[in-house]
Amino acid sequence: MKIFRSFEEARGITSPVVTTGTFDGVHIGHKVILRRLKKLAEECGGESVLITFHPHPRTVLYPESSGKDLKLINTQEEKIELLRKAGLDNVIIIEFTKDFAHTTSEEFVSNYLCGILRSKVIVVGKNHHFGFNKEGDYRHLWKWREQYGFEAEEISMQAVQHETVSSTRIRQALSQGYIQRANAYLDHYYILIGEPECPAEKFSDEVPFVRVPVKETTKLLPPEGLYAVTCAGDAFFSKGMVFITGETDGRQDVYLHICNYDKDIPGKRITLFFHKRLEAWSPSVSIPVALRWGLAEMNDLIF
């Protein structure tokens, strides 16, 4: 997958089949769109393209209200990794500024999607809006397709267990510690990518932990508790247990116990795949006791 940081840099992509959006979580609904992008690209001998924005538009447009405490399912690094796994050909990450926010929907289509990229097909999810004040939608694309020379397609929303999937619903599930529900919506495990720090932190003499820093403050973490995870890195894969602290000064800390602890792991990039919240944790139970119970509970889990 190729990564571009501007429209000009991406000029020359072959017959682009394009979609736009934040794609936070790269959830099952997003994957429906990505699969359609890939199929359309194959049919026209082109390439699939996602145009996304960083930082999140809400943090720029509403820094004192809804964007102030915005939490996202993925860091940018995690989202890129998930898009790569989904088989996307190209991602264009556009810096979102207040000036760019004033781009009208028609300017966005005429100047960028068609003028620079020469998009073959533009695909959007149902109820997707774009451009200044979110004035653009699928109806506008359909109206402009002949004028600017592209095809337009709208994808219906995906449902899981009779509930409409959205990044908002996934954030709600994660915020309540419902990891398995969030994973069902995502169609993959909720992940955290980081580099464990050395030396190991210890909450008890029996269970060694390493701290996993979370570099992006917008990363949404589950609530305080113990979680069963698998850990993957270069040539290593293991079960693990994560302890997430309660929030202090707007920050939570993440500590990892790796079942087959390796002193070479700290300082190396790893991915944590969250499976479930362990029942061993309760605020009324001391941390050392909860950790012992958590290890016993993990021994009974198959994952």
Brief characterization of the structure:
With 303 residues, the chain is α/β, with parallel strands linked by helices.
Shape: elongated
Radius of gyration: 21 Å
CATH topology of the largest domain: Rossmann fold
Fourth CATH level, the homologous superfamily of the largest domain: HUPs
Structural class: alpha/beta
Distance, first to last CA = 30 Å
**Total number of beta strands:** 15
CATH class descriptor of the largest domain = Alpha Beta
Order of helices and strands: EEHEHHEHHEHEEEHHEEEEEEEH
Low confidence ranges = none
Main sheet characteristics: 7 strands, antiparallel
What is the topology?
Elements lengths: L1 E3 L11 E5 L7 H17 L2 E8 L2 H5 L14 H10 L4 E6 L2 H4 L3 H12 L4 E5 L12 H11 L2 E5 L3 E2 L2 E2 L2 H9 L3 H8 L3 E5 L6 E2 L5 E4 L13 E9 L2 E9 L9 E5 L11 E8 L9 H13 L4
Parallel strand pairs: 1-4, 2-3, 2-5, 3-4, 5-6
Antiparallel strand pairs: 7-8, 9-15, 10-11, 11-14, 12-13, 12-15, 13-14
Helix pairs in contact: 5-6, 7-8
